[in-house]
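ok trying again, last paste got cut off:
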Amino acid sequence: MATPAPAQTAAMRRAIQLAARGLGHTSPNPVVGCVVLDAHGHVVGEGWHERAGGPHAEVHALRAAGERARGGTAFVTLEPCNHTGRTGPCAQALIDAGVARVYYAVADPNPAATGGSTTLAAAGVRVEGGLLADEAAAGNEAWLTAVLRRRPFVLWKYAATLDGRIAAADGTSRWITSAESRADVHRLRAQADAVIVGSGTARADDPHLGARLAGLTDDEVSQPMRVVIDTGAAVVKPGARVLDGTAPTLIAVAEDADARHLEGLAPIVRLPRSASGTGVHLPALLDALYERDVRSVLLEGGPTLAGGFLAAHAVDKVVGYLAPVLLGAGPAALGDAGIGTIGQALRLDVTDTVRLGPDLRITATPARHTPTEEN
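nice, full thing came through this time. structure:
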């Protein structure tokens, strides 16, 4: 597209900011933001997709704009949908509102919803795509990845000392990182559809895996599904904190595991064992979660589980919290990931570095792909 005017860039960037407000609430749908300008270029309507099943961003923005949208311009972070699901097609809503021009950032890769730009153009609406596409795609990376790969987006989070240890030699680990870092992890949990840990973490920590956000009540926080990989069905017992009923829980066990003691405590998914036989087949777990409308996963397990996901090429983003602490011994953040030589090392692109209290948060993505393309 031609170089956008500053006003166009500003409107789309505002739409991207609005879209982010839906994180953690819209799955299995994308996050979408919309800004409507009147025929004179004044902002007359804003909206975002607030929850799955509710009105889409365009509908909220058009309702706010009313008749002032006629002859105006809409800026949408994702190509307006072209199908009727739990809500009507947004392309038709824009046409009915009399919008003269539509800018969208990212084309909709969902075969069931794509085609909105064609419908708009056929009705005489001027349409342009690609405005701030990279920024919009980054804000919608989980949903885009899930659509393109037919599996949930996986973010691996870990917290470690500066020399890469997640616990001391005697196993103690509370607290390596600061309160600021721990609060940020709760933000990641609230934005994810599911949080996954393995049997080692479940045995050592009896984690709750719920999300708590400062200033919000429990009812205001979106809780992720809590997933425990308990291959032999030997770790999760009655009374475990993940069974407290405050959020959905799923226990993943091997097909041949005796899990009779878990019946009635939590839903169970039986999965084939991995090739090594020591765990479950992780791609099968991701398939099972995808079928349950999980589109984003926060991987909080220990080094063994993290290594397994990396070996399966199933990690899309890494967030590491590094504390200015040295231990010199103790378990490392990452276990065996099937990498035997430096030439096989998984190279990462660092996308963000932030100070959180005394800690450093590093965000990186595998260099092998971007959110908008397939492997």
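cool. Residues 59 and 349 are 37 Å apart (CA to CA). The first helix runs from residue 6 to 20.
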